[in-house]
UniProtKB/TrEMBL annotation, chain A:
SUPFAM superfamilies: SNARE-like (SSF64356). One of its GO terms (cellular component) is cytoplasm. This is Trafficking protein particle complex subunit 2. The lineage of its organism: Eukaryota, Viridiplantae, Streptophyta, Embryophyta, Tracheophyta. InterPro entries: Longin-like_dom_sf, Sedlin. It comes from Dovyalis caffra. One of its GO terms (biological process) is endoplasmic reticulum to Golgi vesicle-mediated transport. Pfam families: Sedlin_N (PF04628).
From TrEMBL, chain B:
Keywords: Golgi apparatus, Transport. The keyword Transport applies. It is found in: Golgi apparatus. GO terms for cellular component: cytosol; TRAPPII protein complex. This is Trafficking protein particle complex subunit 10. Residues 16-305 form the TRAPPC10/Trs130 N-terminal domain. The keyword Ribonucleoprotein does not apply. Residues 1131-1213 form the TRAPPC10/Trs130 C-terminal domain. InterPro entries: TRAPPC10/Trs130, TRAPPC10/Trs130_C, TRAPPC10/Trs130_N. Signal peptide: none annotated. Pfam families: TRAPPC10, TRAPPC10_1st. It comes from Dovyalis caffra.
Amino acid sequence: MATTACFIIVSRNDIPIYEAEVGSATKREDAAQMHQFILHAALDLVQDLAWTTSAMYLKAIDRFNDMVVSVYVTAGHILCICDFKCYRDKKTGENGE
Amino acid sequence: MASYLAQFQSIKNSCDHVVIAVEDVSDLWPNIKSRFEERLPFKRASLNNKTRNPVFVENFPAEFILTTDSRLRSRFPQEQSLFWFREPYATVVLVTCEDLDEFKTILKPRLKLITQNDEKEWFIVFVSRAHPSNDNAVKMAKKVYAKIEVDFSSKKRERCCKYDIHGPEANFWEDLESKIMECVRNTLDRRVQFYEDEIRKLTEQRFMPESLAFMFEMAHLYEDALREYDELELCYLETVNMPGKQRDFGGVDRGDDLAALLNPENKPLAQIVQDDSFREFEFRQYLFAYQSKLLFKLNRPYEVASRGYSFIIGFSQALTLHENMLPFCMREVWVITACLALINATASPNYDGLVALEIEKEFFRLKGDLYSLCRVKFMRLAYLIGYGTDIERSPVNSALLSMLPWPKPLVWPSVPPDASSEVLEKEKVILQATPKIKHFGIQRKPLPLEPSVLLREANRRRASLSAGNMFEMFDGRQNSSDGSASDASSRMPLSNKMNVISMLRTNSSPGNFDGSVDRPMRLAEIFVAAEHDLKHTISDANLWKALSSVEEFEQKYLELTKGAANNYHNSWWKRHGVVLDGEIAAVCFRHGNFDLAAKSYEKVCALYAGEGWQELLADILPNLAECQKMLNDEAGYLASCVRLLSLDKGLFSTKERQAFQAEVIRLAHSEMKHPVPLDVSSLITFSGNPGPPLELCDGDPSTLSVTVWSGFPDNITLDSLSVTLTATFNADEGAKALRSSTATILKPGRNTITVALPPQRPGSYVLGVLTGQIGQLRFRSHSFSKGGPADSDDFMSYEKPTRPILKVFKPRSLVDLAAAISSALLINETQWVGVIVRPIDYSLKGAVLHIDTGPGLNIEESHVIEMETFGNISQSSTEMAKSNGTQNNCSPSYKKEFQQLKLQDGRIEFPAWASDTNSVLWIPVRAINDKLPRGSSSVTPQKQSNLDGMRTIALKLEFGVSYNQIFERTVAVHFTDPFHVSTRVADKCNDGTLLLQVILHSQVKATLTIYDAWLELQDGFVHTGQGSGRPTSDFFPLVISPTSRAGIMFSICLGKVIGKDEAEALQPESILNIRYGIYGERTNGAHPPVAVECTEPEDARQDLIFKSAIVLQRPVLDPCLAVGFLPLPSTGLRVGQFVTVQWRVERLKGFEDNGISEHNGEVLYEVSANSENWMIAGRKRGHVSLSTNQGSRIIISILCVPLVAGYVRPPQLGLPNVDESNISCNPPGPHLVCVMPPALSSSFCIPP
């Protein structure tokens, strides 16, 4: 299934320093903004969560309908954030809410 | 079961406290009831919870009820364990008795009867009515009470207490309360145990946990009650999800769309029941309502919100599963109402500040989430109705809506009949809606607000039913609307009518319904159909009102957005909050409220810019710019344009970027009245040139080249440009601006700007700020680019550049001027004076030397000045010596240069080759000395004075880029005659001939060759013989090595004395003439004089004449007086003793040969002595007469006292009027005499 994911590295002061869109789907014109928006909003959750756990991999910390955001925090608090589509069982329907 | 449920509900609603039964045996209650009830509610109770842990409950409510009361009597004893919780928890038995017999016979059996029921928790209160003054009665009462205690209290448990009506004991009430509590606790424990056993026994019986829960709630053990409800919920979910247990979901009643998750009394429990279970839709809400009620009682609104949010999510999923049975958009409406209900319930300000900061933050975050969720669903409904054009297509809305699936009703709603006018209206709106044109002509594909095209989705859903089976379709609809017949009946005819209408219109396949179903609905029709269906779904008037018009929608939308934004801000989720601020701004913008919009947009832009999320910034920044333009905020608008330009180049097309630049230039040149400052740090960056910093010596001007990167898409003309330098060593000193004089055109990308650099103070400098002007626009840039090419990421560094661009060294000597030689040069001859010019790591390019000679020194201006490269002389000489002997490999590496220069107006210009190498300047000078050098002899000793030959040359060197560097030095040069002459009489011969030895000292570091010498004698002397006074010429040429001596002998004799008048014409002194030649190097010292015209061949001999005056004195051969020191007394001298010192003066010659001035034969004498050593008595100075005859003699005596012991010089006799040469001292006086210390004086000795 054609899908797209966005991987982004965010520096310690929340500045994106690397961005890559991967996936087989043709790139939507608006997708870049969408990904950026979703990943940027996820920083709010990271800021709360990163200091409460000793784990570096924060797994799926945010969901945006069927987009899942997953974060890896390095020791220097550089974030590697990835969002990707998560296709679920049709029966459960939307899972973002 | 249904009857139980109804009963259960009513019981639950009516009683909320514990009952204490009062068994009034002796009719005492009316008298003491008020006093007992005063104690209610009990201040403090200690109960056990389900796990038998003690829990303290404050303000424990209870009620005393007589056992004869109808409320207790009417019940069947133990009728329903289900309702056991309302039975009394304690029984108080009130008795009184004043007679022992009466007690034994009547009261005791009765009490036994009452207390034999084990189920009851009882205790006895003995009421004493005896007045304290009545001793007998008191005694009796005591006796009876003692009897009761014996009979009913046991060791394990006190079951009695005594109450005195006329004045109860102080601790009675405490005693009573503790007894009541004990009973309540025991009853509670027993009943909890019972319910638990029951639950275990009857897992199917679902009411027991709730009964238990309710019992806990009554006992104010809310925690336990909540736990029971949670357990109940779990039990329920277990059963409801069991396969084969799927039952009717519910939720199809009118008003079900209105979430009842906080309203436990929404529906009577009896209505929810179905067979042996409950409808999920109602029951789950019912359970949550009770849970939240308990949580509110526990003052934990945060948990209500938290549980509520997950409940809504979970419940929403459950609704999705049953969506095809529910009314259209039922799920969305339910979520909206649920969220709003939760928000309202938790909005009370009383909850603020009750909890820890962390929880409070989380609370706000949850409320933000609730608002946000509500907002999304609300937008979805609005879109379905056709308000999509009024929803901002922003990233947030797009992300929220475009991934949210459409509702999936069994059949998409169809257009109601007689709705054609509405359809027309909607169509008009759709046609009128013009896509918003972004400022600057930015063209972007609008972001989607739908997961898939609504038109297709709606039509597909309609067609998803096989078109041929119309009946199936209706069947399906009938099924779906099962349970609400009215709903179904109202819809069916509508559909039928609609079909008729559409059939009439299309006519594609007459007589068949299929055609009408197949005809796709138009968008406007979809909107109208959705609106109509929603009207049926929504029972909340307020919600419907909010969707009734665009204005109402916007108001509600704004309210929800603001709520979400505020709560996110309070929870420190600034990104969520700020993004929603942007949505508020969009609404303000649409309504022309640019001021508010700009403020909000600025917040959003600041966040995105601060964190560098450029794509998001690129989306929002043009909106801000447009607001600012509308507000006439020129500075802001310009700043926004600059920020747009400085964004990633890929985010905007070149055309758009050119539009930004055009705006900047248009504003800069036309509209603004006053200069506007603008920070362009992100757009124009600058750096010094790579490599080491420019190094300058103190006082040197230069030019500085700066690389400027322009982010403008086109060339841009800067009216002026300047860059400041900041000293790194001294922060106090203000930065100095360097101006580029002319207008500069910056082309896109890299530019190199050159600015003039005036002399700076010593230190190192970094680039500070770049400022400039475009029209009325004053821009400045602080941004220091790393100097890399454009491919290095546009990562802006606000750090100060640390790499210095300019270093100005502290003042140091840049050049040295020194005399080339230290040895003396020939005076009165033209000599080369060497000046060594030594540049010290500094170029002397174009340097000018001013030469000014001091007194007594002239420059031979007619002659050229020579300049040549200079190696270390000593080094080169040794090298030369070496190269002659051994190898020639150490030849100097520099190239020998030589040039002749002309002195003009006392200055010469240095040739180019001399700028970096050491050079020596040979200046032809001539030192003038008119005085004839004088020879020395024993008579006239040589006076050591070098100052005579000292001359100075003042040198001033101007060099540097603009002759800004000046070096001044005065060089001293020593000039001298070639020889110093000293004479002595070598021998006096018997025949009167004197051998005069003339000693020649060479004064120069050069070889002197004497070719000839002759002596011109003064008056009174003549050469012996008839010679010309020249020594024998065979000895010549006589070579004298540097600083060595040579001697010449002259034989002379005394000649006749000439008369006085003639003597004046004659020379008073003799002159020695020497003709000599000199061989020397100018690099060493004295050398042959510089020929003014170099016509002579190199080897041509240059004879020089040296003249020296010699004073000859006639020798004095016969003294006329002799002075002798007479011996001192032989006893020796002693301090303090007088001694006579005597001299004898004797005349050796007769009077006639008198060169001595005497007055009548008197001789002047003078005695001199050191007054510290001698005390002289008598005349120190005076005349004594001495006969002028030869041989006459006289003795001069002086009485002296020596003052100090030791060797002292004795007094001396002098004859001032007589020339020393006429005095012969023979024997001469002693140099020192010995003086003894004074003799001891015994008169001072005192015998012991």
